[in-house]
Write a structure and sequence with these properties.
The structure is a single chain. Among the domains are: about 250 residues, no CATH class; about 80 residues, Alpha-Beta Plaits. By secondary structure, it is mostly helical. It is elongated and about 105 Å long. About 45% of the residues lie in helices and about 10% in strands.
Length: about 500
Protein backbone atom coordinates (compact mmCIF):
# COMPACT_ATOMS: atom_id res chain seq x y z
CA UNK A 1 0.00 0.00 0.00
CA UNK A 2 1.45 3.34 -1.05
CA UNK A 3 0.90 5.08 2.27
CA UNK A 4 3.22 8.01 1.63
CA UNK A 5 1.66 8.76 -1.76
CA UNK A 6 -1.84 8.54 -0.28
CA UNK A 7 -0.76 10.90 2.50
CA UNK A 8 0.65 13.35 -0.06
CA UNK A 9 -2.50 13.31 -2.15
CA UNK A 10 -4.66 13.84 0.92
CA UNK A 11 -2.44 16.76 1.90
CA UNK A 12 -2.74 18.27 -1.58
CA UNK A 13 -6.53 17.97 -1.57
CA UNK A 14 -6.76 19.42 1.94
CA UNK A 15 -4.61 22.47 1.26
CA UNK A 16 -6.21 23.14 -2.13
CA UNK A 17 -9.66 22.95 -0.53
CA UNK A 18 -8.49 25.24 2.29
CA UNK A 19 -7.05 27.69 -0.23
CA UNK A 20 -10.32 27.81 -2.20
CA UNK A 21 -12.35 28.06 1.00
CA UNK A 22 -10.36 31.05 2.22
CA UNK A 23 -10.76 32.85 -1.10
CA UNK A 24 -14.43 31.85 -1.40
CA UNK A 25 -15.17 33.27 2.04
CA UNK A 26 -13.30 36.49 1.27
CA UNK A 27 -16.56 38.34 0.95
CA UNK A 28 -18.96 40.25 3.17
CA UNK A 29 -19.07 39.22 5.95
CA UNK A 30 -15.66 37.49 6.27
CA UNK A 31 -16.49 33.94 7.37
CA UNK A 32 -13.34 31.96 6.57
CA UNK A 33 -11.61 29.60 8.96
CA UNK A 34 -8.41 31.61 8.51
CA UNK A 35 -7.66 35.24 7.56
CA UNK A 36 -7.70 35.94 3.77
CA UNK A 37 -3.97 36.73 3.76
CA UNK A 38 -2.91 33.40 5.36
CA UNK A 39 -1.37 31.69 2.34
CA UNK A 40 0.30 34.86 1.06
CA UNK A 41 2.00 35.64 4.36
CA UNK A 42 3.49 32.14 4.34
CA UNK A 43 4.91 32.76 0.86
CA UNK A 44 8.63 33.61 1.24
CA UNK A 45 8.97 34.82 -2.36
CA UNK A 46 6.33 37.49 -1.84
CA UNK A 47 7.16 38.44 1.74
CA UNK A 48 10.97 38.54 1.43
CA UNK A 49 11.30 40.34 -1.88
CA UNK A 50 8.44 42.76 -1.21
CA UNK A 51 10.13 43.63 2.08
CA UNK A 52 13.44 44.16 0.26
CA UNK A 53 11.95 46.28 -2.52
CA UNK A 54 9.99 48.45 -0.08
CA UNK A 55 12.74 48.56 2.60
CA UNK A 56 10.28 47.50 5.28
CA UNK A 57 9.52 44.44 7.37
CA UNK A 58 6.12 43.07 6.41
CA UNK A 59 4.02 41.45 9.17
CA UNK A 60 3.94 38.10 7.36
CA UNK A 61 7.71 37.81 7.07
CA UNK A 62 7.97 35.66 10.20
CA UNK A 63 5.63 33.04 8.74
CA UNK A 64 7.71 32.90 5.56
CA UNK A 65 10.87 32.37 7.59
CA UNK A 66 9.14 29.53 9.43
CA UNK A 67 8.35 27.89 6.09
CA UNK A 68 12.00 28.17 5.05
CA UNK A 69 13.08 26.73 8.42
CA UNK A 70 10.84 23.71 7.92
CA UNK A 71 12.31 23.34 4.42
CA UNK A 72 15.76 23.10 6.00
CA UNK A 73 14.49 20.02 7.83
CA UNK A 74 12.20 18.29 5.34
CA UNK A 75 13.34 19.62 1.99
CA UNK A 76 11.13 21.06 -0.76
CA UNK A 77 7.94 19.66 0.77
CA UNK A 78 5.81 22.72 -0.01
CA UNK A 79 5.88 22.12 -3.76
CA UNK A 80 4.81 18.49 -3.51
CA UNK A 81 2.45 18.55 -0.54
CA UNK A 82 0.92 22.04 -0.20
CA UNK A 83 1.20 24.30 -3.26
CA UNK A 84 -2.30 24.80 -4.81
CA UNK A 85 -0.89 25.43 -8.27
CA UNK A 86 1.36 22.37 -8.00
CA UNK A 87 -1.68 20.26 -7.13
CA UNK A 88 -3.63 21.42 -10.19
CA UNK A 89 -0.56 20.84 -12.37
CA UNK A 90 -0.25 17.29 -11.00
CA UNK A 91 -3.90 16.61 -11.78
CA UNK A 92 -3.51 18.01 -15.28
CA UNK A 93 -0.38 15.95 -15.87
CA UNK A 94 -2.22 12.79 -14.84
CA UNK A 95 -4.33 13.16 -18.02
CA UNK A 96 -1.41 12.64 -20.38
CA UNK A 97 -1.17 9.22 -21.99
CA UNK A 98 2.59 9.05 -22.25
CA UNK A 99 5.17 10.91 -20.23
CA UNK A 100 7.96 12.77 -22.00
CA UNK A 101 11.22 12.29 -20.12
CA UNK A 102 13.88 14.88 -21.04
CA UNK A 103 17.47 13.68 -20.93
CA UNK A 104 19.61 14.35 -17.89
CA UNK A 105 21.57 17.09 -19.63
CA UNK A 106 18.40 18.72 -20.93
CA UNK A 107 16.81 18.60 -17.48
CA UNK A 108 19.87 20.24 -15.98
CA UNK A 109 19.68 23.08 -18.51
CA UNK A 110 15.93 23.54 -18.09
CA UNK A 111 16.03 23.78 -14.32
CA UNK A 112 18.59 26.60 -14.48
CA UNK A 113 15.98 28.94 -15.95
CA UNK A 114 14.05 29.33 -12.72
CA UNK A 115 17.20 30.26 -10.80
CA UNK A 116 17.93 33.06 -13.24
CA UNK A 117 14.31 34.21 -12.85
CA UNK A 118 14.77 34.18 -9.06
CA UNK A 119 18.00 36.13 -9.53
CA UNK A 120 16.15 38.73 -11.60
CA UNK A 121 13.43 39.02 -8.95
CA UNK A 122 16.17 39.62 -6.36
CA UNK A 123 17.89 42.10 -8.66
CA UNK A 124 14.72 44.13 -9.22
CA UNK A 125 13.93 44.01 -5.50
CA UNK A 126 17.29 45.56 -4.71
CA UNK A 127 16.51 48.22 -7.30
CA UNK A 128 13.29 48.89 -5.41
CA UNK A 129 10.98 47.22 -7.91
CA UNK A 130 8.78 44.36 -6.76
CA UNK A 131 8.34 41.78 -9.54
CA UNK A 132 7.80 38.67 -7.42
CA UNK A 133 4.04 38.81 -8.08
CA UNK A 134 4.40 38.15 -11.81
CA UNK A 135 5.30 34.44 -11.61
CA UNK A 136 4.49 33.69 -7.98
CA UNK A 137 2.37 30.49 -7.95
CA UNK A 138 0.26 31.58 -4.98
CA UNK A 139 -0.72 34.83 -6.68
CA UNK A 140 -1.41 33.08 -9.99
CA UNK A 141 -3.63 30.50 -8.30
CA UNK A 142 -5.43 33.17 -6.27
CA UNK A 143 -6.16 35.32 -9.32
CA UNK A 144 -7.57 32.32 -11.16
CA UNK A 145 -9.71 31.14 -8.24
CA UNK A 146 -11.04 34.60 -7.32
CA UNK A 147 -11.55 36.08 -10.77
CA UNK A 148 -12.39 32.97 -12.85
CA UNK A 149 -13.21 29.83 -10.89
CA UNK A 150 -15.52 31.19 -8.19
CA UNK A 151 -17.63 33.41 -10.52
CA UNK A 152 -17.95 30.56 -13.05
CA UNK A 153 -18.89 27.85 -10.53
CA UNK A 154 -21.32 30.10 -8.70
CA UNK A 155 -23.06 31.24 -11.87
CA UNK A 156 -23.14 27.74 -13.38
CA UNK A 157 -24.55 26.10 -10.25
CA UNK A 158 -27.14 28.83 -9.72
CA UNK A 159 -28.23 28.67 -13.38
CA UNK A 160 -28.50 24.89 -13.24
CA UNK A 161 -30.80 24.98 -10.22
CA UNK A 162 -32.99 27.68 -11.76
CA UNK A 163 -33.27 25.72 -15.04
CA UNK A 164 -34.28 22.55 -13.18
CA UNK A 165 -36.86 24.37 -11.07
CA UNK A 166 -38.40 26.08 -14.09
CA UNK A 167 -38.45 22.89 -16.14
CA UNK A 168 -40.03 20.75 -13.42
CA UNK A 169 -42.14 23.55 -11.95
CA UNK A 170 -40.69 22.76 -8.52
CA UNK A 171 -40.72 25.60 -6.01
CA UNK A 172 -40.86 23.58 -2.79
CA UNK A 173 -39.64 20.31 -1.39
CA UNK A 174 -36.23 18.95 -0.28
CA UNK A 175 -34.37 19.98 -3.46
CA UNK A 176 -35.63 23.53 -3.26
CA UNK A 177 -34.81 23.69 0.46
CA UNK A 178 -31.31 22.47 -0.36
CA UNK A 179 -30.96 25.24 -2.95
CA UNK A 180 -32.11 27.86 -0.44
CA UNK A 181 -29.49 26.55 2.00
CA UNK A 182 -26.78 26.88 -0.64
CA UNK A 183 -27.95 30.39 -1.51
CA UNK A 184 -27.44 31.41 2.10
CA UNK A 185 -23.91 30.00 2.13
CA UNK A 186 -21.83 28.80 -0.84
CA UNK A 187 -23.99 30.21 -3.65
CA UNK A 188 -24.62 33.36 -1.67
CA UNK A 189 -21.36 34.82 -2.94
CA UNK A 190 -22.07 37.73 -5.25
CA UNK A 191 -21.49 36.79 -8.89
CA UNK A 192 -19.01 39.43 -10.00
CA UNK A 193 -17.72 40.24 -13.44
CA UNK A 194 -14.07 41.16 -13.83
CA UNK A 195 -12.75 42.81 -16.96
CA UNK A 196 -9.78 41.08 -18.59
CA UNK A 197 -10.33 37.94 -16.52
CA UNK A 198 -9.98 36.00 -19.78
CA UNK A 199 -6.28 36.93 -19.94
CA UNK A 200 -5.77 35.62 -16.41
CA UNK A 201 -7.56 32.39 -17.32
CA UNK A 202 -5.49 31.85 -20.47
CA UNK A 203 -2.22 32.36 -18.60
CA UNK A 204 -3.28 29.87 -15.92
CA UNK A 205 -4.42 27.40 -18.58
CA UNK A 206 -1.09 27.54 -20.41
CA UNK A 207 0.83 26.91 -17.18
CA UNK A 208 -1.28 23.85 -16.35
CA UNK A 209 -1.49 22.51 -19.92
CA UNK A 210 2.31 22.42 -20.19
CA UNK A 211 2.20 19.43 -17.81
CA UNK A 212 0.51 17.43 -20.59
CA UNK A 213 3.83 17.38 -22.42
CA UNK A 214 6.40 17.31 -19.60
CA UNK A 215 5.43 16.57 -16.01
CA UNK A 216 5.69 19.56 -13.67
CA UNK A 217 7.28 21.60 -16.47
CA UNK A 218 6.33 24.90 -14.77
CA UNK A 219 7.85 23.76 -11.47
CA UNK A 220 10.99 22.46 -13.16
CA UNK A 221 11.78 25.45 -15.33
CA UNK A 222 9.96 28.62 -14.34
CA UNK A 223 8.61 28.85 -10.78
CA UNK A 224 10.71 31.35 -8.77
CA UNK A 225 9.15 30.24 -5.48
CA UNK A 226 10.22 26.68 -6.29
CA UNK A 227 13.72 28.00 -7.03
CA UNK A 228 13.86 29.70 -3.63
CA UNK A 229 12.75 26.52 -1.87
CA UNK A 230 15.24 24.54 -3.97
CA UNK A 231 18.14 26.71 -2.80
CA UNK A 232 17.19 26.10 0.83
CA UNK A 233 16.31 22.41 0.35
CA UNK A 234 19.87 21.58 -0.75
CA UNK A 235 20.84 21.81 2.92
CA UNK A 236 17.84 19.89 4.29
CA UNK A 237 18.28 17.09 6.81
CA UNK A 238 15.87 14.61 5.23
CA UNK A 239 17.51 12.86 2.31
CA UNK A 240 17.00 10.11 -0.21
CA UNK A 241 19.09 6.95 0.10
CA UNK A 242 19.48 4.10 -2.42
CA UNK A 243 20.73 0.86 -0.88
CA UNK A 244 21.20 -1.52 -3.82
CA UNK A 245 20.43 -0.26 -7.30
CA UNK A 246 19.89 -2.79 -10.08
CA UNK A 247 20.09 -0.08 -12.78
CA UNK A 248 16.52 -0.52 -14.08
CA UNK A 249 16.02 3.27 -14.26
CA UNK A 250 12.37 2.96 -13.23
CA UNK A 251 12.79 5.81 -10.75
CA UNK A 252 14.39 8.00 -13.43
CA UNK A 253 11.39 7.55 -15.72
CA UNK A 254 8.88 8.03 -12.90
CA UNK A 255 10.35 11.18 -11.30
CA UNK A 256 7.96 14.03 -12.12
CA UNK A 257 10.65 16.65 -11.47
CA UNK A 258 13.48 14.98 -13.40
CA UNK A 259 15.50 15.13 -10.19
CA UNK A 260 16.91 11.58 -10.34
CA UNK A 261 20.11 11.06 -12.31
CA UNK A 262 21.24 8.07 -14.36
CA UNK A 263 23.40 6.74 -11.51
CA UNK A 264 20.35 6.70 -9.17
CA UNK A 265 21.56 9.79 -7.36
CA UNK A 266 19.38 12.90 -7.26
CA UNK A 267 19.44 16.67 -7.24
CA UNK A 268 18.36 17.29 -3.69
CA UNK A 269 16.92 20.77 -4.27
CA UNK A 270 14.66 19.50 -7.06
CA UNK A 271 13.04 16.68 -5.09
CA UNK A 272 9.51 17.61 -4.01
CA UNK A 273 9.05 14.47 -1.90
CA UNK A 274 6.34 13.01 -4.13
CA UNK A 275 7.56 9.53 -3.03
CA UNK A 276 6.84 7.95 -6.43
CA UNK A 277 10.37 6.60 -6.66
CA UNK A 278 10.00 4.76 -3.33
CA UNK A 279 7.16 2.60 -4.63
CA UNK A 280 8.22 2.19 -8.26
CA UNK A 281 11.55 0.62 -7.34
CA UNK A 282 11.32 -3.19 -7.92
CA UNK A 283 14.10 -3.80 -5.39
CA UNK A 284 12.56 -1.69 -2.60
CA UNK A 285 15.98 -0.06 -2.42
CA UNK A 286 14.90 3.59 -2.06
CA UNK A 287 14.06 5.27 1.19
CA UNK A 288 14.06 8.72 2.77
CA UNK A 289 15.82 9.01 6.09
CA UNK A 290 17.69 11.27 8.47
CA UNK A 291 21.50 11.54 8.44
CA UNK A 292 22.13 9.49 11.59
CA UNK A 293 19.94 6.65 10.28
CA UNK A 294 21.50 6.32 6.83
CA UNK A 295 24.73 4.72 8.12
CA UNK A 296 26.60 6.19 5.18
CA UNK A 297 24.92 3.76 2.80
CA UNK A 298 23.68 4.68 -0.67
CA UNK A 299 23.67 7.74 -2.84
CA UNK A 300 21.74 10.87 -1.93
CA UNK A 301 22.86 13.62 -4.25
CA UNK A 302 23.97 14.32 -7.77
CA UNK A 303 27.17 15.92 -8.94
CA UNK A 304 27.54 19.58 -8.04
CA UNK A 305 27.21 20.49 -11.71
CA UNK A 306 23.54 19.48 -11.49
CA UNK A 307 22.66 22.15 -8.97
CA UNK A 308 21.37 24.69 -11.47
CA UNK A 309 22.63 28.27 -11.32
CA UNK A 310 26.00 28.49 -9.61
CA UNK A 311 26.47 30.31 -6.34
CA UNK A 312 28.91 32.65 -8.11
CA UNK A 313 26.31 33.59 -10.75
CA UNK A 314 23.63 34.25 -8.14
CA UNK A 315 25.92 36.36 -5.96
CA UNK A 316 27.04 38.30 -9.02
CA UNK A 317 23.44 39.23 -9.82
CA UNK A 318 22.82 40.34 -6.25
CA UNK A 319 26.08 42.23 -5.68
CA UNK A 320 26.09 44.15 -8.95
CA UNK A 321 22.61 45.45 -8.20
CA UNK A 322 23.47 46.34 -4.60
CA UNK A 323 25.64 49.29 -5.60
CA UNK A 324 22.89 50.73 -7.77
CA UNK A 325 19.90 49.97 -5.57
CA UNK A 326 20.10 53.03 -3.32
CA UNK A 327 20.39 55.42 -6.27
CA UNK A 328 17.51 53.79 -8.11
CA UNK A 329 15.32 53.80 -5.01
CA UNK A 330 15.91 57.49 -4.35
CA UNK A 331 14.92 58.23 -7.93
CA UNK A 332 11.67 56.34 -7.46
CA UNK A 333 10.92 58.10 -4.17
CA UNK A 334 11.95 61.58 -5.20
CA UNK A 335 11.02 61.48 -8.87
CA UNK A 336 7.93 62.83 -10.50
CA UNK A 337 4.62 61.17 -9.72
CA UNK A 338 3.83 58.22 -11.89
CA UNK A 339 1.42 59.32 -14.67
CA UNK A 340 -1.43 56.90 -14.14
CA UNK A 341 -4.07 58.80 -16.09
CA UNK A 342 -7.50 58.38 -14.50
CA UNK A 343 -6.86 55.26 -12.43
CA UNK A 344 -8.81 55.50 -9.18
CA UNK A 345 -7.15 53.43 -6.46
CA UNK A 346 -9.03 51.78 -3.56
CA UNK A 347 -9.19 53.60 -0.21
CA UNK A 348 -5.99 53.39 1.81
CA UNK A 349 -3.77 52.84 -1.25
CA UNK A 350 -0.16 53.90 -0.85
CA UNK A 351 1.39 56.45 -3.18
CA UNK A 352 1.35 55.18 -6.73
CA UNK A 353 4.97 53.99 -7.01
CA UNK A 354 4.87 52.33 -3.61
CA UNK A 355 1.47 50.84 -4.31
CA UNK A 356 2.59 49.23 -7.58
CA UNK A 357 5.66 47.82 -5.82
CA UNK A 358 3.87 46.37 -2.84
CA UNK A 359 0.69 45.09 -4.50
CA UNK A 360 1.06 41.38 -5.33
CA UNK A 361 -2.05 41.23 -7.54
CA UNK A 362 -3.64 38.48 -5.44
CA UNK A 363 -7.18 39.67 -6.23
CA UNK A 364 -8.38 39.66 -2.61
CA UNK A 365 -9.54 43.29 -2.68
CA UNK A 366 -11.36 42.83 -5.98
CA UNK A 367 -13.00 39.62 -4.78
CA UNK A 368 -14.23 41.18 -1.53
CA UNK A 369 -15.55 44.45 -3.03
CA UNK A 370 -19.28 44.30 -2.37
CA UNK A 371 -20.23 46.45 -5.39
CA UNK A 372 -17.81 44.79 -7.86
CA UNK A 373 -16.33 48.23 -8.43
CA UNK A 374 -12.70 47.13 -8.02
CA UNK A 375 -11.40 45.78 -11.31
CA UNK A 376 -7.95 44.69 -12.58
CA UNK A 377 -5.94 47.28 -14.49
CA UNK A 378 -4.37 46.29 -17.80
CA UNK A 379 -2.27 49.14 -19.18
CA UNK A 380 -4.10 52.18 -17.80
CA UNK A 381 -1.40 52.64 -15.14
CA UNK A 382 1.55 51.62 -17.30
CA UNK A 383 3.35 48.29 -17.44
CA UNK A 384 4.23 48.44 -13.75
CA UNK A 385 0.55 48.67 -12.83
CA UNK A 386 -0.73 45.57 -14.66
CA UNK A 387 -3.45 43.69 -12.73
CA UNK A 388 -3.43 46.12 -9.82
CA UNK A 389 -6.92 47.14 -8.62
CA UNK A 390 -8.76 50.25 -9.73
CA UNK A 391 -12.23 51.57 -8.99
CA UNK A 392 -14.47 51.61 -12.07
CA UNK A 393 -17.57 53.62 -11.07
CA UNK A 394 -19.55 52.52 -14.14
CA UNK A 395 -19.43 48.98 -12.73
CA UNK A 396 -19.57 49.69 -9.00
CA UNK A 397 -18.88 52.43 -6.49
CA UNK A 398 -16.88 52.50 -3.25
CA UNK A 399 -19.40 51.74 -0.51
CA UNK A 400 -19.27 54.50 2.09
CA UNK A 401 -19.59 52.13 5.06
CA UNK A 402 -17.13 49.44 3.88
CA UNK A 403 -13.46 48.86 4.81
CA UNK A 404 -13.09 45.30 3.52
CA UNK A 405 -10.44 45.82 0.83
CA UNK A 406 -7.86 47.13 3.28
CA UNK A 407 -8.63 44.34 5.74
CA UNK A 408 -7.80 41.56 3.26
CA UNK A 409 -4.63 43.02 1.70
CA UNK A 410 -1.70 40.74 2.67
CA UNK A 411 1.13 43.22 2.08
CA UNK A 412 -0.23 46.57 3.26
CA UNK A 413 -0.47 48.02 -0.25
CA UNK A 414 -3.92 49.00 1.01
CA UNK A 415 -3.62 50.16 4.59
CA UNK A 416 -6.19 49.09 7.14
CA UNK A 417 -8.51 51.99 7.85
CA UNK A 418 -11.10 52.44 10.54
CA UNK A 419 -14.55 53.26 9.23
CA UNK A 420 -14.19 56.89 10.30
CA UNK A 421 -10.79 57.16 8.57
CA UNK A 422 -12.14 55.55 5.44
CA UNK A 423 -15.08 57.96 5.24
CA UNK A 424 -12.60 60.83 5.11
CA UNK A 425 -10.26 59.22 2.58
CA UNK A 426 -10.28 61.00 -0.74
CA UNK A 427 -10.08 58.77 -3.84
CA UNK A 428 -10.72 61.52 -6.36
CA UNK A 429 -13.09 64.33 -7.25
CA UNK A 430 -16.27 64.26 -9.30
CA UNK A 431 -16.82 66.73 -12.12
CA UNK A 432 -20.07 67.49 -13.89
CA UNK A 433 -20.19 67.85 -17.66
CA UNK A 434 -22.77 70.59 -18.04
CA UNK A 435 -23.13 69.95 -21.76
CA UNK A 436 -24.68 66.52 -21.09
CA UNK A 437 -26.10 66.88 -17.55
CA UNK A 438 -29.89 66.89 -17.90
CA UNK A 439 -30.65 69.86 -15.62
CA UNK A 440 -27.86 71.97 -17.12
CA UNK A 441 -28.27 71.05 -20.80
CA UNK A 442 -32.01 70.44 -21.11
CA UNK A 443 -33.54 72.03 -18.02
CA UNK A 444 -34.94 68.64 -16.97
CA UNK A 445 -35.29 67.58 -13.36
CA UNK A 446 -32.65 65.08 -12.24
CA UNK A 447 -30.82 65.04 -8.93
CA UNK A 448 -29.85 61.37 -8.67
CA UNK A 449 -26.22 62.29 -8.04
CA UNK A 450 -27.13 64.60 -5.16
CA UNK A 451 -29.61 62.13 -3.69
CA UNK A 452 -27.09 59.26 -3.62
CA UNK A 453 -24.12 61.25 -2.33
CA UNK A 454 -23.26 59.55 1.01
CA UNK A 455 -21.31 62.46 2.53
CA UNK A 456 -23.44 63.85 5.38
CA UNK A 457 -22.79 67.46 4.31
CA UNK A 458 -23.53 66.49 0.67
CA UNK A 459 -20.56 66.98 -1.61
CA UNK A 460 -23.01 67.55 -4.46
CA UNK A 461 -25.03 70.66 -3.90
CA UNK A 462 -27.65 72.42 -5.99
CA UNK A 463 -28.37 75.91 -7.18
CA UNK A 464 -31.79 77.20 -8.17
CA UNK A 465 -32.13 78.78 -11.59
CA UNK A 466 -35.23 79.90 -13.43
CA UNK A 467 -35.55 78.77 -17.04
CA UNK A 468 -38.64 78.99 -19.25
CA UNK A 469 -40.87 80.11 -16.41
CA UNK A 470 -39.92 77.26 -14.06
CA UNK A 471 -37.29 76.77 -11.39
CA UNK A 472 -34.68 74.11 -12.12
CA UNK A 473 -32.36 72.69 -9.49
CA UNK A 474 -28.90 72.26 -10.99
CA UNK A 475 -26.18 70.18 -9.29
CA UNK A 476 -22.56 71.17 -8.76
CA UNK A 477 -19.67 69.49 -6.91
CA UNK A 478 -18.06 70.86 -3.77
CA UNK A 479 -14.49 69.66 -4.36
CA UNK A 480 -13.53 70.09 -0.72
CA UNK A 481 -16.21 67.66 0.44
CA UNK A 482 -16.17 65.16 -2.45
CA UNK A 483 -14.32 61.91 -1.59
CA UNK A 484 -14.56 60.37 -5.07
CA UNK A 485 -16.55 57.28 -4.07
CA UNK A 486 -18.11 57.14 -7.55
CA UNK A 487 -21.73 56.47 -6.56
CA UNK A 488 -22.84 59.61 -8.40
CA UNK A 489 -21.20 58.42 -11.61
CA UNK A 490 -22.62 54.92 -11.12
CA UNK A 491 -26.20 56.19 -10.70
CA UNK A 492 -26.14 58.90 -13.38
CA UNK A 493 -28.80 58.05 -16.00
CA UNK A 494 -27.05 59.76 -18.92
CA UNK A 495 -25.70 57.35 -21.56
CA UNK A 496 -23.44 56.32 -23.19
CA UNK A 497 -21.09 58.58 -21.20
CA UNK A 498 -22.09 59.66 -17.71
CA UNK A 499 -22.64 63.35 -17.18
CA UNK A 500 -20.60 63.18 -13.97
CA UNK A 501 -17.18 61.57 -13.81
CA UNK A 502 -14.78 60.92 -10.94
CA UNK A 503 -11.15 61.84 -11.62
CA UNK A 504 -8.41 60.22 -9.59
CA UNK A 505 -6.66 62.02 -6.80
CA UNK A 506 -3.14 62.82 -8.06
Amino acid sequence: MRKLIIARRCSQVFFLALFIHILWSTTYPLTGLLPPETFFRADPLIMIFTSISERIVLPGLVFSLIMLSVTLVLGRFFCGWICPLGTVIDWTGALRKKSTVPGERTSAMIRKIKFFILGLVALFALFGIQTAWILDPMGMAARFVSLNFIPFVTLAADSLFITVFKGLQIYSGPLYDFYITLKSSVLGVDIHYFVNSGIIFMFFLIVCAAALFVSRSWCRAVCPLGALYSVVARFSLLRRVVDKCSGCRACVRECRMGAITEDAGYVKGECILCMDCVYVCPENAIRFTWPHLSDGVGSDSADISERGISRKDFLFLALTSFFLSGFRRRNRRAGAANPRRNVIRPPGALKENEFSDRCIRCGNCMKVCITNGLQPVVLQAGLEGIWTPQLVPEIGYCEYNCTLCGNVCPTGALTRLSLEEKKKTKLGTARINRSTCLPWSEGRECLLCEEHCPVPEKAIKVIREEAGGKVVLKPYVDGDLCIGCGICQNKCPVRPLRAITVYAEQ
